[in-house]
Design goal:
Distance between the termini: 40 Å
Number of domains: 2
Radius of gyration: 24 Å
Mean pLDDT: 83
Order of helices and strands: HEHEEEEEEHHEEEHHEHHHHHHE
Low-confidence stretches: 1-17
Number of helices: 12
Largest sheet: 10 strands, mixed
């Protein structure tokens, strides 16, 4: 009997420690503040190093490095990618119950190829469920997401996702744009969030018949034929004379992403409004935030 009881305790201990803390439910931990809730998670996680813990979400296990300096907690997910050593870097301020995400990166994360197909969703779910478990009020980030074409060419994923789905990827995950950038935000052309929203709505609603109206009187209206990357637009415009520029850009991305990137990054100054709109849309840092409803303990 005593032997069976010992085996039961051993199995119970192993089941508690082997799999780490399960974040799947995202239920608020019944402790009085963020500090105590984080400590609770750490005490129920599988510790695999000085600051390394194994956790779980939706039956997927992953490592997190969790440490604290004088004022903030730092939560990181290591990557095997030499150039980008982290899949996630997230800081938590326990004084005002807010978080700040500085890195979301799907390369080299410790997941199987099957799990990695939805790596961005999985990483954000880790943040969301950890946030609701400890009582975070708000997370902030700067959307610098890009998508890669051939030859390592990249373009804004925020704008391309908007063209396809009517909102950026982070917007689809509950994030909203901050009304205006703060000191230290890095957007080169972004003066306010309104600039960005106005620019993307303008490009998405523009008809081909409106494009020529932007040309200065002295500019050659045959500009479409003068550069290789304009020929697809001339052909598309001929087939859809009252079509939308948005539809053309989406088709162009699917057919020849290199020309899509060249066109959106080198829109001629002759088209004064479109030229400046694309400069804004390629702004690499878009300040965003997500609020979490307060849950009862």
């Amino acid at each position: 009997m005593r032997r069976k009881f010992f085996i039961f305790l051993l199995l119970s201990y192993h089941s508690k420690i082997c799999c780490g803390y399960d974040l799947t439910s995202g239920t608020l931990i019944s402790r009085k503040n963020i500090e105590e809730r984080i400590e609770y998670i750490l005490s129920h996680s599988h510790k695999i190093g000085a600051h390394d813990y194994e956790m779980e979400i939706d039956n997927v296990r992953f490592p997190l490095q969790i440490s604290k300096d004088i004022r903030k907690w730092k939560i990181e997910m290591p990557s095997t990618d030499f150039l980008i050593p982290h899949c996630l870097i997230w800081s938590i301020n326990p004084i005002d119950n807010t978080g700040s995400i500085s890195t979301i990166n799907g390369k080299g994360c410790h997941f199987t190829p099957e799990q990695s197909k939805g790596i961005g969703n999985l990483l954000l779910k880790v943040v969301d469920n950890f946030s609701t478990s400890i009582g975070i009020k708000k997370n902030s980030l700067e959307d610098a997401s890009t998508i890669t074409c051939e030859n390592h060419l990249t373009t804004s994923l925020a704008f391309l996702h908007f063209l396809k789905h009517g909102k950026s990827w982070y917007e689809s995950k509950g994030y909203t744009f901050r009304p205006s950038p703060r000191p230290g935000d890095k957007g080169a052309y972004l003066q306010s969030t309104k600039d960005y929203l106005d620019a993307r709505n303008y490009v998405a609603s523009l008809h081909f018949q409106d494009i020529e109206l932007q040309l200065h009187p002295t500019n050659d209206p045959n500009i479409y034929q003068k550069n290789d990357w304009w020929k697809p637009l001339a052909s598309y415009k001929h087939a859809h004379p009252i079509g939308l520029l948005k539809d053309f850009l989406l088709d162009l991305w699917e057919e020849n992403c290199k020309i899509y990137i060249k066109m959106t990054s080198e829109f001629p100054p002759a088209f004064k409004h479109l030229h400046f709109a694309f400069k804004i849309l390629e702004s690499p840092y878009l300040p965003m935030e997500k609020f979490y409803p307060e849950k009862k303990k």
